[in-house]
Specification:
The protein has 524 residues and is an alpha/beta fold. Helices cover 27% and strands 22% of the residues. It is globular and about 65 Å long. The protein starts with 12 loop residues before the first strand and ends with a strand.
Length: 524
């Protein structure tokens, strides 16, 4: 799809790679790092980020998400560079510092800015991730059996899904299915007959994915082989780099080395061929795992190494990423980082603005983390809030992808379990629309899930509602104990699920119960 024409003659003060841009009245900006979604749109408060070295929140060294050298304005302006840059913004000015920065105008709206940037720098590929990642729920073993998956527990997990009456989907076998990191074969003690297990799950209607990371456990045969072939990242003194991450300390694959890329591809292809698994959850690859001081086969940067890890997913239609630099328009499933089981700005309320941020960085195929919360330490300490679990499920049911880990049978009573099952039924009803929007995203690059400001420029500061395409507005319930949901209705006529019409622009208070998902369809 050809986007609006770019006007690269936009006036800006520029000195030696630095730009100082005055904000226009009412102008707001999005982009940079998904972790900043809760602060978007920028232009209301002071904020800064250096995209070269960080893609996560400042208070969590191991939490990162997608990022890209892109900023988009509600007034049609945009910023792009082929390199990471630093930016600072407040309510009057946007300051940029980096190389080869383009500051341009593409019309007068956020949508025009996005389409112009997409068409020029990250065009759509006419490909999508595997349809099963969208059409049915995803089920990840992480919270249900952290660090302890076995052939028996995975098979039992599938049985429980069936017993609950939940639709089959994609089962992701998470951390510790292999004997060591980098030794990408099934642990025979835990999974004595992996091909038979996968075949059985396929027969029950499930696809199967495996969790992998770009780390290699020291003191293993794989480590010794890769180190001898100089296929691991090294330090300046020539030693193999050992990187601390959330599971300990490991070596890091040097993905600038063609032999490393070929080795990894062969390992993953062997798994698919020999066991029948369908694809891979590609965890890790965050900017913090790499350093400007790393010694690699070819010169590189942390963002480039992050991008190379993400590109591994392009070989597998069943893929999932949490960290990614650039690659907008690619057929990659992008998940939000692990969330705590909380209602606030770090938990449930973070989902909509961060999903919006993913879409505006060129990632339409997005997932709002594991339902109820996927941050294992917080879940272990706090347990699950049943009402929050329901509200997260309802939001996920209306997002491009929906992922469970903890299943309702062990964490919910009958009332809340019924509400979750009803949410999965709502997703089934929305599937024809989602199916169409997935194809639309593949051909046009447009986000599936969009901020209201994408189509209604005056609604830049509405950050707790979203659009699926141009014609369905979702106002998820985000407050504990809510009996009313205040909804901002854009211009035009909008019908709720019962067919009642609201003429916008308007603000309405919608009565809600535990089972409510406020939906509004644009009337033709």
């Amino acid at each position: 799809m050809t986007g609006p024409a770019l006007d690269v003659t936009l006036a800006a003060e520029s000195v030696a790679g630095r730009h100082d841009i005055a904000l226009l009245p009412g102008e707001r900006w999005w982009g940079g790092a998904v972790a900043d979604g809760g602060l978007m749109p920028f232009g209301r408060h002071a904020h800064n980020r250096d995209l070269a070295h960080s893609a996560g929140p400042s208070d969590d060294p191991f939490a990162g998400n997608q990022s890209a050298p892109l900023l988009l304005s509600s007034h049609g302006r945009l910023v792009w560079s082929p390199h990471p840059f630093a930016f600072a913004i407040d309510d009057t000015r946007l300051r940029l510092d980096g190389q080869d920065i383009t500051v341009a105008r593409a019309g007068t709206s956020l949508r025009e800015a996005y389409l112009a940037a997409s068409a020029r720098w990250f065009p759509p590929t006419n490909r999508t991730p595997a349809r099963r990642l969208f059409s049915g729920p995803q089920y990840n073993t992480w919270i249900d059996s952290p660090y302890t998956p076995t052939q028996h527990s995975v098979t039992e997990y599938a049985h429980r899904i069936q017993a609950l009456g939940m639709p089959p989907g994609v089962i992701m076998i998470d951390d510790s299915w292999s004997p060591a990191y980098g030794t990408w074969t099934f642990d025979q003690a835990r999974f004595p007959y992996p091909a038979a297990m996968v075949n059985r799950l396929h027969g029950a209607g499930f696809a199967v994915m495996l969790w992998v990371v770009p780390f290699v456990s020291p003191d293993t045969a794989v480590f010794r082989e890769l180190e001898s072939r100089r296929m691991l990242v090294r330090t300046r003194d020539g030693d193999t780099k050992l990187q601390r991450w959330w599971n300990g300390v490991s070596a890091v694959l040097d993905l600038t080395h063609p032999d490393t890329v070929a080795w990894l591809k062969e390992r993953l292809d062997d798994l698919r061929r020999e066991t029948g698994v369908d694809g891979f959850k590609l965890d890790g690859g965050d900017l913090w795992a790499y350093s400007d001081d790393d010694v690699t086969h070819a010169p590189t940067t942390p963002v480039e190494h992050c991008r190379r890890w993400a590109e591994t997913g392009l070989d597998h239609p069943y893929n999932e990423l949490r960290a990614c630099w650039g690659l907008g328009g690619a057929p990659l499933a992008q998940r939000l980082r692990d969330k705590p089981p909380t209602w606030g700005e770090d938990g449930l309320r973070s989902l909509v603005p961060e999903l919006v941020a993913q879409g505006l960085l060129g990632h339409p195929y997005v997932c709002p983390d594991m339902i109820g919360g996927g941050e294992i330490n917080a879940v272990t300490a706090q347990g699950f809030d049943q009402e929050l679990f329901v509200r997260h499920a309802q939001l996920a049911a209306t997002a491009p992808m929906m992922q469970f880990s903890a299943l309702p049978d062990r964490v919910l009573d009958e009332e809340h379990r019924a509400a979750v099952l009803e949410a999965t039924e709502t997703r089934g009803e929305l599937w024809p629309l989602l199916d169409t929007l997935i194809d639309h995203a593949a051909t046009t690059g447009e986000p599936i899930l969009r901020p209201l400001a994408y189509h209604y420029g005056e609604l830049t500061d509405v950050t707790d509602q979203f659009l699926l395409g141009p014609d369905l507005m979702v106002a998820p319930v985000l407050d504990a104990g809510a009996t009313v949901r205040r909804v901002v209705v854009p211009a035009g006529d909008w019908a709720d699920a019962e067919g009642h019409i609201t003429r916008g622009p308007a603000v309405v208070d919608v009565p809600v119960t535990l089972r409510s998902i406020p939906l509004f369809f644009r009337a033709v």
